[in-house]
Amino acid sequence: MAGGVQKAVKERGGIKKLRSLNARRDPQILIEVELSEQVDVRPIWRYTLILKSEGSGQQRPVVAKEVVVDLRKSKTYVDRPDPEDQIDKERLTETHLEHVNSNKDFRTLAEFFCSSTYLHLVPQLLKHGEKLGGSLLDGDPFVQAFLQRIAKATPRVQSSRLKKIERALTVCVPNMRKLAFERDPTTGSPHLIALYEHWRPDAGWQRESEFSDGTLRLLGIMWSLLDGNGLLLLEELELSLNESIVERIHKLIVQMQRDAKYSRQVFITTHSDALLRDRSMDVREVVRLEPTEDGTVVHEASETDIKAIKAGYTIAEALLPKVRPKHLDQLSLFER
Length: 336
What we know:
The N and C termini lie far apart (55 Å). The radius of gyration is 23 Å and the shape is globular. By secondary structure, it is an alpha+beta fold. A hairpin with a 4-residue loop joins β3 and β4 (75-80). 30% of the residues lie in helices and 22% in strands. The protein has helices at 4-11, 15-18, 83-87, 107-115, 123-127, 129-132, 146-152, 155-172, 213-226, 243-246, 249-259, 303-310, 315-319, and strands spanning 29-35, 45-53, 61-70, 75-80, 117-119, 176-183, 190-196, 205-207, 232-235, 266-269, 287-292, 295-300. The protein has 13 helices and twelve strands.
């Protein structure tokens, strides 16, 4: 795992930036994840990590607790700090999860975390990347290197994925008829090109710099659904998209998953009423985040919510009123 816990914490501003603003006496950070192979079945792994500041010297993040449990076998592979950690405190600056020498028995867990992808495509970075320059963040979360990702795929895989994306885009994007990959004959730079209906045959070819922001975001989302097998994190994917497309984005994701070699689990953050109006969505797929004075509380759908949806309400109608800011009406004080 490139960089490990030290790099991960440093890139996020250190322990002080990661710990909750509502934390009072306990300055430690707890992360606990349970993994299962399918929805609604017992988890098979539990990984627990507690980090704290070193307390002196370099103030590095150190492992206060690391536990790996195989829940199927009721077997604990790691329970730290262990006697060796007590003898050599330097060992606590690293996790067992990040080392191939120590994660042999639970490497599938490490591989899962490594395969997770965060995606928040910023169209302007893709359109004007060559002009803006700048370095890429690890994992390329803003998809600046999107075209390079496509270029790295083998011609067969590349063609197959673009055909699947083309089928969806020709429905969503007015007048688009073909989608293809090419390299600039002069610079060798990779480009996506699309053919739009035009009164002159083959006169409507455009490069990605001429695509709409919504088209580029759809491209990035669909390629990511087809490329990889780990967890995919999408932030506010409704941005720049037509509302009628957002209403059907859940079905689009399901369809792309069917066409993919591997099915990815997808987490989406959204404030979109349109996205949550889709009746094909199971309310158990949705959790509501409620900010409170003591931090954010995560709520699953209540029995009342489930009954309301069974009675004919959409998820948007049942849940969105509960996330409305309490004092929103006070904005009228600022109206002129």
